[in-house]
User: What shape does this take?
Amino acid sequence: MAKSRQTGTPRKKEVVETAVRKKRSTATATNSAKTVKKSVKATTESSSVCEPSTISPQETETSSVCEPPTISSQKVEALQTCTNFAELPAVDAPSLETLSNEAILPSSSPFPSAIEIACDSREFNDYVQALKGIIPSNSSHPILSNILIEADAETQHLHLTAYNLEFGMQVSFGANVNRSGKLTLPAPILADILGKFPNGSLTLKSSCEIIKGSDVPSVSATLSASRSKHAIRGLAADEFPAIPSVQQKLVTLPASVLISALKASLFAVSSEENKRILTGGNFQLSRDADRGLDRLRVWTTDGHRVAMVLGLNESSNSHLLSSQIVNFTVPAKVLRLLERSLNSTDKVTIYYEGLPEQPSNFVAFEWNNWRLTAKLLEGQYPVCDRIIAPYRPEFSHQVVVERLSFLKALERLASHSDKSHLTAIFEFDLDAQQMRASLNNTLSSGTETVDAKLWGCEFRLKCDIRYLIDTAKAISSSDLRVLMATPTAPLLIAPFGTPASGTEALECEYIVAPQE
Assistant: This one.
């Protein structure tokens, strides 16, 4: 010990304290750096370096040639009282706010893949404009205002989808797909831009980034054509709701049959939401085994009138139709969209997976490269044929009239109608074989006379003129026939004569309630 004092070598206690202090300083710095980069738990690292160190004689000898560090009395006291460095206060990791503004924050959401495609701008525009029609105008879900765009490099196709949770449309078409991926873009601005793009090739490229302060990927797309270049911000495709899948094929029909059936029946659908089941068309599909035909019967009613249209087609040998009648009700707005979208030369396949004891909630219509999937209306549709069935044996009064002349006469009379004056009075002249109709209100009145073939008809009849006009417009034949039992019994109106050129010959019946 005397030699140690002469040479200035520190005491063994001071050597231990100095070595431990250096090791603590080094470990703390290392832990801080790791915390910034990888957010490593500081406590675990601190515990591993805070165990008391054992100093070997060699280390003591080496330390003896070093200049003793200067340590404040406060630090020495703290070191002497600390037997485990885990007892020291933990070092806080720096806030993310202190990181560089260019740093990309980690995301909990999957990072969308970017897409790159080239296609014909007119074709792309036509499909987007068609899909825009089903986009809700004031949805509480922003994603429903977007169109889902999916690019498939394997099939070289672009798939577009619009969905409003009630029904959705999907379309696919060929494109040059360089990179597969998907995203959604707002339909209104996309349709507006595409509608003004020049004809020719269009390029669409998407990009994704994580915005500071958010873990949701920000998606955008750039549309380029000729000298035009436009950027649109969208939403990640993962947020877009999936359209229910309906895979079981029910029947395939010529689109001309379905179009004619819808045109002849949808006018009688109710617009009152409190009668929700009546706001759709009731489909009844069955097989006529004797004639080898599939039958599509469409019923519509608003409680004041009924339309029934029967379309026939060669049997598609559907096993579902071989032993039962398939029955479901499709919302009228879906059927009107379907009617507008179809071309008479198309073939339409109906997909439905329900059974009489377990109805399905969805139906799908597929034609060409389009597919329309809709949620069905719930509830039991009224059996409309029961309304007229008791009166069929009593139809002893009959009128046959040329359809267009009758329609024009009714439309002229309608000029005198208002909300409180809608009833037209019909009188029949058997000797002259004429029918006279009149309508009066407080300011004006009118009378129309048309030639007709009459049987019976020894009474006057009152009807709402609107229902008769709608029925005359729906019928496509040259003449129409009106069957009557009594002045207060429902009227049965049916096509008569030859069908109009370019229309399907359909079996139709219309029931109109008279005014008492």
Notes: The chain has a mean pLDDT of 81. Residues 12-38 form the longest helix (27 residues). The longest strand covers residues 445-455. The two ends are 130 Å apart (CA to CA).
